């Protein structure tokens, strides 16, 4: 499995609240978000980890270059207009992977749930994509994920009519058919990850949701304590 981390955001909300380092360098229980993700990926059979950072992240780049990781880490340094464009740039740095797991740097989850997620993706070989979802809403602009009774994804929605159980968790496992749509989406002018996901549904790809009990995003300083408490829960 090849893994990717989108770490190209500016973390402007954290900066306004006094955290001046890049968001990937936020620490949870003494471990940086970026280091935690790489370690989790390495324990889940990562062949390589590809990370995109923006061009104003010199301190993050220095950390990534100096750190010793148990897996091969590749850095793409480019400022992009959206997470979809960051994904596009990451894929360009790989050698046409058959499968790719992508996440944003501020996605905090329980490792045992992530391990089960990866195992499910590897087992369900006919799926074009397995998307992490949760019923725990911890986002200022959530993407709601409509599913059928078998957790097949039928739509991605900006609003909830009260019938949708899940929101996107910001973790995506995709196979080659879905990965090919990244380039087509960007080159046709699609500019948001959620619109790319809608495109996958429109193209008839087989997508399924994998529920996590909880996924926490780090957008504000207060979220750090929330995430640490979450990780301490048994």
Describe this structure in words.
The chain is an alpha/beta fold. The chain has helices at 12-16, 33-42, 58-66, 83-92, 111-123, 176-187, 193-202, 221-232; strands at residues 2-7, 27-28, 31-32, 48-53, 73-77, 99-104, 107-108, 129-134, 144-147, 153-157, 166-175, 207-212, 216-217. The protein is 35% helix and 26% strand. The strands form three sheets. Strands 1, 4, 5, 6, 8, 9, 10, 11 and 12 form a nine-stranded mixed sheet that branches. β4 (48-53), α3 (58-66) and β5 (73-77) form a beta-alpha-beta unit. α4 (83-92) packs across α6 (176-187). It is globular, with a radius of gyration of 17 Å. The two termini are 28 Å apart.
Structural Rg: 17 Å
Give the percentage of residues in beta strands: 25-35%
Task: Choose one word for the global shape.
Answer: globular
Taken in chain order, the helices and strands follow as: EHEEHEHEHEEHEEEEHHEEH
Strand tally: 13
Question: Biggest β-sheet, characterized?
Answer: 9 strands, mixed
N-to-C span: 28 Å
Task: Supply the number of helical segments.
Answer: 8
Estimate the helix proportion, in percent: 25-40%
Kindly report the oligomeric state of this protein. single chain
Mean residue pLDDT: 95
Segments where pLDDT lies below 50 for 5+ residues?
none
Could you say which structural class the secondary elements and strand pairing correspond to? alpha/beta
């Amino acid at each position: 499995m090849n893994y990717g981390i989108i770490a190209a955001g500016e973390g402007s909300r954290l900066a306004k609240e006094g955290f001046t380092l890049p968001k990937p360098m936020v620490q949870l229980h003494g471990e940086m978000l970026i280091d935690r993700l790489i370690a989790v990926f390495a324990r889940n059979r990562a062949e390589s980890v590809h990370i995109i950072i923006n061009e104003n992240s010199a301190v993050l780049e220095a950390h990534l270059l100096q750190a010793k990781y148990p897996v091969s880490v590749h850095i793409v340094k480019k400022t992009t207009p959206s997470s979809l464009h960051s994904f596009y740039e990451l894929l360009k740095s790989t050698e046409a992977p058959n499968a790719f797991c992508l996440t944003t740097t501020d996605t905090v989850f329980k490792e045992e749930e992530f391990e089960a997620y990866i195992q499910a993706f590897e087992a369900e070989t006919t799926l074009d994509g397995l998307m992490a979802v949760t019923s725990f809403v911890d986002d200022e602009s959530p993407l709601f994920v409509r599913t059928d009774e078998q957790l097949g994804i039928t739509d991605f929605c900006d609003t909830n009519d009260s019938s949708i159980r899940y929101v996107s968790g910001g973790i995506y496992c995709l196979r080659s058919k879905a990965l090919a749509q990244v380039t087509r989406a960007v080159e046709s002018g699609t500019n948001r990850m959620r619109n790319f996901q809608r495109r996958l549904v429109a193209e008839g790809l087989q997508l399924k949701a994998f529920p996590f009990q909880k996924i926490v995003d780090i957008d504000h300083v207060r979220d750090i304590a929330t995430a640490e408490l979450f990780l301490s829960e048994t």
